[in-house]
């Protein structure tokens, strides 16, 4: 159970830093600068771990990097591309970096751990981050990196209360399954965390420059999208953690072989992203979100019902093919919905909310699953039953996400700007062509109706309706 905490040490800081960071950066600097990962040094220092406390601190501080990069990357893409197929493709490819990055990180960390020395995995990440930071400085266009609120103010009370409240909630929520919910300090910290979050909400309603403007919750479909993403990714967190536990603990598989088994997520994720880029302007966003919840649910079902001695190529392989569709459909679909519905000044905050909810929900989902597992596994004597019970919780969360996506995330399909322009030009051409034909017939020497009534029925003038350019245009749009 301690490993359950290990995988989540990075989550609180990653989530909590996002909103304060995005507000600060929108005021003080160009958003291209935020792609310099601020946790490079901390990542390298994680290689010098000597005890659990140092490990926990370094893992938490590593969250500053993703908290900075992810929302600002989305904001940069949203400003660079207008609504259309190209924007859908770019956002989809951005979402595909998640499974690809997961596999590459798992593969190389397993190689270092099994054949060399595990700190090299941390040092390698630090080297890569520094290289990418230098590249970002020279590659990202300066014209899209302007500050949105250059004269804004930092909401210090909001930043402090949001970070403090979420840290206490996440810590107590995940500490409960480890030490037991009967420990008084677990409940005390959980209650205090919720009280601080209540104070944060009150502050955001009163200050002039909040880090989370209350107005974003009034945008149509946004609350439902956030709830749907939270349910789906909490289910995904349960799936990925307990799938690894089943393969490593129950099937006694080496870490390197486990990493190799996860290779199917790369082609599956790339296929999913390309599919979203082609479907987003044809299919309403809530249907895409609902489909992603279905993939999350099916993945949990396949792992929960797989026998321990079953071959990898049966349910496990199928789960690794299907579940990435949930990741790579939900993330770009939600990001596109937000970027197309939010004003420019709030796109960074809305994007940070999506990333915050994704990371927070993974941690909260694992807390729920860990609690279920600890209550069902008979004090560790029935490990398989505990794992399956946790996966059943994931099935329930993703199933609820399907309902939320269908009922509370309804948004219209987005017509690409280039396609809309083409349709408008076609409509105008049709109207002009119709006018020219009418003028030609009217100016001919042919008597009215002569030569026509034998081939076409005469039209009763009383039943004719005037041609409206607006009505013709609506047919095309």
Describe the structure.
The protein has about 475 residues and is mainly alpha-helical. It has two domains: about 350 residues, MFS general substrate transporter like domains (Growth Hormone, Chain: A); about 55 residues. Helices cover about 70% and strands about 0% of the residues. The protein is built from 19 helices and no strands. The N terminus and C terminus are likely disordered. GO terms for molecular function: transmembrane transporter activity.
Would you spell out the secondary-structure blueprint of this structure?
Elements lengths: L1 H5 L4 H6 L1 H11 L11 H6 L6 H10 L2 H17 L4 H31 L3 H21 L16 H24 L4 H23 L15 H29 L4 H7 L3 H15 L5 H20 L10 H27 L5 H30 L6 H26 L8 H27 L25 H8 L1
Helix pairs in contact: 3-6, 3-16, 6-16, 7-8, 7-12, 7-13, 7-15, 9-10, 9-16, 11-14, 11-15, 11-16, 11-17, 13-15, 14-15, 14-17, 15-16, 16-17, 18-19
